């Protein structure tokens, strides 16, 4: 014992306490340890040479004495040795006051950013010694305790540990080591006016100059300091010092992220401090000690701890007073968050009922303060899921109830997070209803409520991001193993029935592989409720989902696709073409990301349902056209899918070999391409062209493919072979020639197979010898002359004939074609002549044979125009009209003024006449002289013909001739475009497609009435045609001519109203028939006209909107104001329509109409430099544009408006009402500047102000009525009586100052002033809108709401109920503003009168 005393006195000697002037000590104490008082240079130099070893020795001596003293107290009683250590110091003339002052000198020396390594380590050691002294009994009596010094010592780690030490560090630690060796004293602040900015920069530079060795020294001192804090908490009660307890809580929370925890950490009530290896472990133990009764009321302690851990779980950095900022979710941050979650679970498990109320509100704050970033949301949802496992079923139901209300009022980030939380809950086992005693809360426990009321209800959210996230999560629900989740999703889309899934069983319409949803049960029947929802609701849900697939937002479309595939995959919705067609159509979506998502979805569905023919068809229609996509990444994705499904599954064929699932799928797809989806096979040519460039088509693949030409799926093999044969180097020609011989001798070979074999023969023609080639030509000619072939085979056979006769000599090739194709033309002539020239030739007409002869004649004539004589033309002409009786004045030529149908009718069937038109068109393609003769005839036939097939083919011919003879056909474009208004839908659609192709390739220009006829198709009675027209205009034509819409907009007003009095507009020639056909004049067509106007305006740029507004003012309004246009009935209609157009919201500039920050202002909640800069730029742009628009409006528009108003008043015109409505809409943004705008007409200004005020009052009344009805809507299905915001129904939270966060209700300012005077005591959720707290009024309140709509409930001082550093008095505790219904409030609870800001200004405080 004596030795220990001697060691202690010896250890204190290095502090030179006897040399310290008393005046200096008094000055330090008088300054409250807030600044470092300089010592004399000699003494300071002596103290500066103190080594860390001296501090450690003193610390160990004090630690030994403290342990001995504690043992003596336990053995002999407190009075025996309570003053022993202080007595030792007193006996040896050691001044406690000087000791504390010198220790503070070292502590303050390490706080500066310019402090070197020695000063920082000494500071930490001095703080450890002070904390150790403070923990020894008798410290308060000996005046060791000082609150400022205690706070400074306990929080010294944040000053001494270099910030961002791991991010940037110099390679060489020489500078730091030299500083340590020199032991330089800190710089004195002699110059009070030093440059702060330069000093800060130097400090930051100095802060980064620490080597790894230096950091290890600081860490060792930090560990000693934290151990001292823990020892202090074990012996020094903080019950009467709540501020110190709060500071300790913050300090330990900061230390949680000091370093990663190696291995797991254990939380127990008693731990050996020396065995805690890492600083975070010590910090958790410190938080646990703070929750003990020794340091105050446990409820207050838990409140403080939960508050600090909130931001750890949210992965945010909370500074002193500012808004929390999200951290990057690195492994270290995630590890700290996990440890914090486990620690809270330990506290709740240990303290049970005492901690559960705070857990409830902690979860609510997590939801309320969550940011929008998906990664952080995902981790936060997992934390909420882990924490709710510690809740009882009743508490869990309360939280779900609160979450239900929260999803309807939260911001976008909160609604997104609620969906993430629901998905985590669905992964947990469902809680049983009998576990909750309250019958009103039992309805919140089933997974069905989570899916239908929380998840699927967000499908109609205002935010597209939330809509998309809801639908994406709905698809994920079906992948969960819970049968209740599956049943709940089924109930949303299926009203009645049951679906049984047996493991390993394959039935029609179900996947070959057992669904993941049913993987936990080998056999299960999922029963669908027939009562909820109804069949009608199920159909509406599906219809809504299909509409979302076509949503305007890309994210929503992608999520809806994912949801639809999940429902189809798990047989929730029927596997019918109407549903699958949406998937294939999305593969051609304008957005690249949607196309890629759709390709993935159809591939996923095909993998799940490989034997479903409808799915196979949808896959083909989605993937194959994508190989022609303009986006290379989409092409690559489609090629990859085709490679996996088609190329990789082609194996060599053996007669007895069984095909696996992949091979069967491949041949099923190829069979579909040969039958139902013939039109898609052409895309394989593009695919194999790209594959051959990448050397993906190998000789082994071709050999395997040829081996299948004799199998039952030979048609598919020939299809692929016809696409790949051109890029092959070596081929087994014998097998191909054998297949040719089989085809020639067979009569039942499929048409597509025959075409593919002919294509292969044409591709290998150059590799055949002369004898073989001549034999094939003879076979081919004999085959064609039978005229028994289908039309498709005739085309393929003539093309193969051309390939067989092609050579390098063009003349030789043409001679071959003249010989053989001319022979075919002669044969066709010989057949047609007796039928056409004979009076009774059509009596026993074989219609099919006649069509084949005409078709062969047309195809063959394209290759041998020299062999087509006048007789041939006249024969084909006679198919369309009788020539036996000539019309008056008609010699040898057909009159150009009459259509084909106006000649003497013949007895030819419509089918024959339709093919005759096609053949005549092919003859015209090769003979220019026939164009002049037949173009007028074709044009009149389009107008006055009666046969739909003939007129449809005439449209095709005219558009094909336009490519070859553009200048000639250009005069007949109005005749062709007139078919856009035809009575037959097929002709309208065909004309739209053909004209779009011509406009794309610029064979046709936007001249005359063409644009306006396209606009009329936008309002076509057939929705599919209107949608096709919209696609053609937006995605094909507008890209080539971005000014197209704005150039024609004003003329649309005159044209659709059939107004031609304007000197410039609507002056192009058109017949009366065409005028009536495309007129949209009159009130009954107003809706159609405005649909067109809105469509055009929606796709204007702001510059175009601005210019068109000015142009309308100059060319329309000014013309009426200057009496250039008469104000008659037609003129009044035009003027009225113009004002209505100017009043459209689509006419308003987007830069002004959208909120600051654009559409992303609501979608992205967190603030960063990029979003802030963008918001500033948009705000500046809005201000500039608004000023420019205001100036132009005053200078150019207002004079015209005043003149028009005077004119309309004189004529007592009803258009005046439209003019005032236009002004009312326009002046909404300038309601305070009406008199300035209309200074030239005071009466108009007064009338406009009155109209604006009246409209505002009406709008306020409507909003007021809507607000009053908010509490009567959106009730839960089985708990409509009360949906309360407070999560703890059965537990009284008073007198805790830890309250439920409340999401803001978006009230307009006027409605807010109306309602803030009321006491909100209803059972619904409580929202305090517009409440402004005076600075001193928070003492008697536990919750307050910042003014404005941008409410952010945090734990900030004087703002939130969840945390306040102030000592809550008994009065304050009884004045907590509760958020529960009247039935649940404790008796005697005082009601708060929450008043409006207006009354607060008058009274100065809240009563």
UniProtKB/TrEMBL annotation:
Listed Polar residues bias regions: 1268-1286
Record-level GO cellular component terms: condensed chromosome, centromeric region; condensin complex; nucleus
InterPro entries: ARM-like, ARM-type_fold, CND1/NCAPD3, Cnd1_C, NCAPD3
Annotated keywords: Cell cycle, Cell division, DNA condensation, Mitosis, Nucleus
Record-annotated Condensin complex subunit 1 C-terminal domain positions: 950-1115
Gene Ontology biological process terms in this record: cell division; meiotic chromosome condensation; mitotic chromosome condensation
Cell compartments where the protein resides: Nucleus
Pfam families: Cnd1
Composition-biased stretches (Basic and acidic residues): 180-192
Oligomer status and interactors: Component of the condensin-2 complex.
Task performed by this protein: Regulatory subunit of the condensin-2 complex, a complex which establishes mitotic chromosome architecture and is involved in physical rigidity of the chromatid axis.
Name assigned to this protein: Condensin-2 complex subunit D3
């Amino acid at each position: 014992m004596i030795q220990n005393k001697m060691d202690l006195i010896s250890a204190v000697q290095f502090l030179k306490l006897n040399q310290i002037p008393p005046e200096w000590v008094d000055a330090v104490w008088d300054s409250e340890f807030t600044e470092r008082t300089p010592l004399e240079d000699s003494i300071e130099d002596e103290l500066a040479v103190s080594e860390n070893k001296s501090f450690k020795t003193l610390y160990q001596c004090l630690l030994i004495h403290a342990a001995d003293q504690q043992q003596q107290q336990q053995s002999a009683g407190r009075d025996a040795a309570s003053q022993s250590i202080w007595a030792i110091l007193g006996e040896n003339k050691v001044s406690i006051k000087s000791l504390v002052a010198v220790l503070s000198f070292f502590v303050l020396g390490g706080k500066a950013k310019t402090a070197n390594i020695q000063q920082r380590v000494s500071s930490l050691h001095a703080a450890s010694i002070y904390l150790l002294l403070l923990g020894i009994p008798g410290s308060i009596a000996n005046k060791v305790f000082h609150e400022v010094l205690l706070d400074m010592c306990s929080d010294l780690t944040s000053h001494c540990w270099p910030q961002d030490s791991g991010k940037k560090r110099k390679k060489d630690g020489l500078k730091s080591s030299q500083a340590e060796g020199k032991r330089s004293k800190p710089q004195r602040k002699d110059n009070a006016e030093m440059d702060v900015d330069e000093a800060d920069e130097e400090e930051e530079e100095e802060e980064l100059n620490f080597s790894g060795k230096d950091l290890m020294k600081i860490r060792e001192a930090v560990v000693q300091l934290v151990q001292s804090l823990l020892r202090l908490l074990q012996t020094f009660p903080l019950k009467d010092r709540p501020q110190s307890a709060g500071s300790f809580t913050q300090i330990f929370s900061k230390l949680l992220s000091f370093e990663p925890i190696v291995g797991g950490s254990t939380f127990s009530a008693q731990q050996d401090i020396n065995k805690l290896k890492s600083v975070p472990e010590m910090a958790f133990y410190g938080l646990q000690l703070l929750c003990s009764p020794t340091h105050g009321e446990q409820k207050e302690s838990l409140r403080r701890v939960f508050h600090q851990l909130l931001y750890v779980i949210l992965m945010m950095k909370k500074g002193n007073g500012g808004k929390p900022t999200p951290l990057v979710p690195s492994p270290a941050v995630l590890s700290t968050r996990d440890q914090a979650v486990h620690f809270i679970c330990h506290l709740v498990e240990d303290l049970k009922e005492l901690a559960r109320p705070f857990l409830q509100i902690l979860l609510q704050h997590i939801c309320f303060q969550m940011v929008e970033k998906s990664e952080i949301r995902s981790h936060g949802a997992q934390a909420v899921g882990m924490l709710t496992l510690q809740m009882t079923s009743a508490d869990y139901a309360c939280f779900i109830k609160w979450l239900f209300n929260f999803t309807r009022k939260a911001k976008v980030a909160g609604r997104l997070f609620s969906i993430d939380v629901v998905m985590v809950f669905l992964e947990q086992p469902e809680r049983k209803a009998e576990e909750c005693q309250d019958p009103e809360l039992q309805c919140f426990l089933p997974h069905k409520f989570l899916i239908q009321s929380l998840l699927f209800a967000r499908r109609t959210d205002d935010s597209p991001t939330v809509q998309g996230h809801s639908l994406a999560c709905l698809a994920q629900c079906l992948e969960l193993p819970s049968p209740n989740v599956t049943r709940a999703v089924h109930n949303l889309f299926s009203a009645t029935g049951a679906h049984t899934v047996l493991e390993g069983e394959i039935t029609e319409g179900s996947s070959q592989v057992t669904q993941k949803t049913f993987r936990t049960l080998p056999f299960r029947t999922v029963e669908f409720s027939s009562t909820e929802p109804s069949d009608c609701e199920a159909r509406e849900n599906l219809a809504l989902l299909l509409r979302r697939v076509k949503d305007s937002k890309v994210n929503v479309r992608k999520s809806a696709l994912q949801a639809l595939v999940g429902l189809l995959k798990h047989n929730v919705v029927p596997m019918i073409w109407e549903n699958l067609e949406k998937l294939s159509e999305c593969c051609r979506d304008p957005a690249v990301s949607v196309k890629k998502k759709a390709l993935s979805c159809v591939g996923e569905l095909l993998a799940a349902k490989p034997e479903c023919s409808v799915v196979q068809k949808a896959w083909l229609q989605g993937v194959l056209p994508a190989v022609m996509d303009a986006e290379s990444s989409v092409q690559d994705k489609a090629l990859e899918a085709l490679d996996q499904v088609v190329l990789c599954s082609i194996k060599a064929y053996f007669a007895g070999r069984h095909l696996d699932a992949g091979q069967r799928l491949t041949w099923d797809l190829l069979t579909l391409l040969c039958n139902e989806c013939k039109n898609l096979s052409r895309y394989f040519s593009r695919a194999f062209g790209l594959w051959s460039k990448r050397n993906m088509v190998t000789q082994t693949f071709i050999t395997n493919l040829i081996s299948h030409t004799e199998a039952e799926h030979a048609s598919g093999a020939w299809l692929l072979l016809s696409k790949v044969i051109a890029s092959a180097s070596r081929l087994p020609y014998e097998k191909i020639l054998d297949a040719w011989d089989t085809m020639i001798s067979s009569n039942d070979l499929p048409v597509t197979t025959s075409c593919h074999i002919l294509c292969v023969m044409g591709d290998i023609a150059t590799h055949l010898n002369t004898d073989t080639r001549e034999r094939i030509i003879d076979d081919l000619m004999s085959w064609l002359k039978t005229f028994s072939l289908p039309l498709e085979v005739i085309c393929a056979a003539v093309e193969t004939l051309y390939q067989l006769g092609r050579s390098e000599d063009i003349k030789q090739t043409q001679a071959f074609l003249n010989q053989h194709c001319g022979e075919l033309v002669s044969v066709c002539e010989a057949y047609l002549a007796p039928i056409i020239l004979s009076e009774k030739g059509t009596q026993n007409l074989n219609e099919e044979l006649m069509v084949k002869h005409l078709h062969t004649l047309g195809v063959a004539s394209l290759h041998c125009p020299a062999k087509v004589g006048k007789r041939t033309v006249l024969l084909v002409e006679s198919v369309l009209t009788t020539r036996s009786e000539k019309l008056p004045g008609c010699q040898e030529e057909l009159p150009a003024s009459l259509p084909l149908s106006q000649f003497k009718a013949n007895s030819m069937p419509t089918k024959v006449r339709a093919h005759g038109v096609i053949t005549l068109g092919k003859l015209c393609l090769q003979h220019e002289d026939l164009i002049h003769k037949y173009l007028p005839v074709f044009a009149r036939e389009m107008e006055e013909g009666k046969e739909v097939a003939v007129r449809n083919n005439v449209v095709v011919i005219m558009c094909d001739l336009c490519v070859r003879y553009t200048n000639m056909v250009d005069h007949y474009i109005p005749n062709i475009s007139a078919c856009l208004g035809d009575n037959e839908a097929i002709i309208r659609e065909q004309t739209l497609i053909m004209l779009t192709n011509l406009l794309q390739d610029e064979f046709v220009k936007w001249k005359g009435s063409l644009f306006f006829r396209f606009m009329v198709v936008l309002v076509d009675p057939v929705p599919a045609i209107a949608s096709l027209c919209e696609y053609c205009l937006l995605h094909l034509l507008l890209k080539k001519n971005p000014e197209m819409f704005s150039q024609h907009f004003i003329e649309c007003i005159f044209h659709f109203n059939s107004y031609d009095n304007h000197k410039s507009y609507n002056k192009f020639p058109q017949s009366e028939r065409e005028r009536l056909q495309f007129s949209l004049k009159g009130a009954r067509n107003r809706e159609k006209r405005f649909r067109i106007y809105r469509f055009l305006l929606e796709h204007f740029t702001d510059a175009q909107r601005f210019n068109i507004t000015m142009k309308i003012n100059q060319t329309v309004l000014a013309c009426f104001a200057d009496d250039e246009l008469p104000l008659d009935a037609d003129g009044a209609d035009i003027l009225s329509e113009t004002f209505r157009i100017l009043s459209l919201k689509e006419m308003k500039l987007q830069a002004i109409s959208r909120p600051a920050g654009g559409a992303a202002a609501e979608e992205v909640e967190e603030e960063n430099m990029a979003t802030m800069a963008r918001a500033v730029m948009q705000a500046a742009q809005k201000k500039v544009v608004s000023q420019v628009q205001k100036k132009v409006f005053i200078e150019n528009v207002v004079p015209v408006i005043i003149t028009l108003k005077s004119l309309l008043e004189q004529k007592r015109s009803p258009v005046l009402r439209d003019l005032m409505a236009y002004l009312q809409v326009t002046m909404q943004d300038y309601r305070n500047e009406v008199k300035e705008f209309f200074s030239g007409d005071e009466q108009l200004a007064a009338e406009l102000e009155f109209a604006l005020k009246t409209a505002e009052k009406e709008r306020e009344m409507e909003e007021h009525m809507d607000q009053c009805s908010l509490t009567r809507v959106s009730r839960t299905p089985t708990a409509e009586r009360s949906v309360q915001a407070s999560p703890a129904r059965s537990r009284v939270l008073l007198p805790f100052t830890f309250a439920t966060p409340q999401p803001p209700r978006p009230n307009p300012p006027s409605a807010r002033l109306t309602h803030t005077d009321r006491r909100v005591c209803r059972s619904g959720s409580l929202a305090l809108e517009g409440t402004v707290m005076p600075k001193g009024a928070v003492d008697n309140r536990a919750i307050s709401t910042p003014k404005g709509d941008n409410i952010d409930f945090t734990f900030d001082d004087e703002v939130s109920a969840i945390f306040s550093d102030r000592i809550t008095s008994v009065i304050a505790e009884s004045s907590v503003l509760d958020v529960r219904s009247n039935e649940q409030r404790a008796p005697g609870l005082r009601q708060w009168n929450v008043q409006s800001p207006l009354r607060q200004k008058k009274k100065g405080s809240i009563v």
